[in-house]
Amino acid sequence: MDTTRLNHLLQRHLDGELSLEERDELQSLLLSKPEARRAYWRQARTHAALRLLGEQAWGQRDSIRQRKALSWQVRRVAWAAAAAVLIAGLLLIWMRQSPNTGMALMMETQGARWESSTLPTEPGTVLGAGRLRLAEGLARLRFALGADVTLEGPAELELIGAQVCRLHRGSLVAHVPEQARGFSVLTPSATLIDHGTDFGISTDEIGYANVQVIQGEVELRHANGTPSLRLMTQEMAAITPEKLLPAMSLEAEPRRPSRTGESAGFMSEITTRTGLGAAAYVSEPRTEQNQSGTLLLLKHCAESGYGRKVLLRFDLAGLPDAASISQAKLTFSLAPSGYGYASHGDDARIVVYA
């Protein structure tokens, strides 16, 4: 634990100067580190004592009426310090409760629609053991030791402990700070063990999965007991129910292992619902193994051969006076493809041709 950083956060808290991001950081430290809670206790007492001494010294130089008013201020400071100590004590009690309590905190959601989950889904609620079923949208959780996990719907995540969860299906992106090293994600066919990193993982119920390491290092262990696989920054690997596939560069096209009996065919053009409107994607030659007959796949890649562009055509003939249009809004709906992560994507560049 970085004691210098902790002391900085505590001082800003006691001075009432914490930003929202710093408040979340301090809260995470207090929840996960006993030494952080002890430091909080010591600094709160010291802060209150110094304020008390300062107020008393000032009161000796003032009138009786001012000293009475000051006495009220001193009592208020003492009460504030006591409240701060009480909060720290409550955090300690919360962390010492049963293992099924306080595994994670629901931080925020974006466009979330939930299915029948066994856990509360309101932002700010404490989550114990149970399942979250996200039909669509995004949900960000912070585990007790500091791991931040963004779940991308549709997905089903089971909370097992303060350092372990099971992704039954869907995708998540995780940021794991140093104090949460060892955070683990279980899938139907493998286990991902973090070694201090940012990573993404997607899986289905059968056990086909993809792992991408954005920064740091992760370890993959297959359920069949074969030797584990280490992935480093900008590497990825595919998982099948039978084995781990070799690591490859993240700049290449993420591989989704073909399932038995799955057709490799795809539609090169998808007609829209209005008149002569149409939509299609143009892809470079090295994308032949990853196509979709229902999705428009968009990708910009530093390595040549994997790029995709989406072309859209709109038939305006049905409008009363198409020439009078002054504004238009184009809305894209994200859908899971099994290749990338909506919460960790770059912006798309849109060009209007006509």
List the defining traits of the structure above.
about 350 residues, three-stranded antiparallel beta sheet, 13-stranded mixed beta sheet, alpha+beta, globular, single chain
Shape: globular
Radius of gyration: 27 Å
Give the distance, in angstroms, between the N- and C-terminal Cα atoms: 57 Å
Percentage of β-strand residues: 25-35%
* Count of alpha/pi helices: 4
Unreliable spans: 83-100, 261-271
Largest sheet: 13 strands, mixed
What is the N-to-C succession of helices and strands? HHHHEEEEEEEEEEEEEEEE
How many beta-strand elements?
16
Whole-number mean pLDDT: 78
Percentage of residues in helical conformation: 10-25%
Structural class by SSE content: alpha+beta
Mind sketching the topology for me?
Layout lengths: L2 H12 L5 H13 L1 H27 L3 H32 L8 E11 L11 E2 L2 E14 L4 E14 L2 E12 L8 E3 L3 E5 L3 E6 L5 E7 L1 E6 L6 E4 L2 E5 L8 E2 L19 E3 L6 E6 L24 E6 L41
Parallel strand pairs: 5-6
Antiparallel strand pairs: 1-2, 1-3, 3-4, 4-5, 5-8, 6-7, 7-10, 8-9, 9-12, 10-11, 12-13, 14-15, 15-16
Helix pairs in contact: 1-2, 1-3, 2-3, 3-4
